Amino acid sequence: MNNCSAKLRRYAIVSLFFISFSSMPNSIFAETSTSKSLHSHQKIAESARQFLDANIEKSQFSRIDIKMSQLDSRLKLSQCPLPLTTTLAPGSRFAGKTTVHLRCNSTSPWTVYVGAKIKLYGKVIQTATPLTKGHILSKHDLIAAEEDLSAIKYGYFTDTEFLIGKQLKRRLPQRKIIKANYVKAPTLVKRGELVTIIAENTGYSVKMTGTAMATGGHGDRIRVKNSSSNRIVEGTIKAAGIVSIN
Question: Which residues constitute the signal peptide according to the record (predicted)?
Answer without folding.
Answer: 1-30
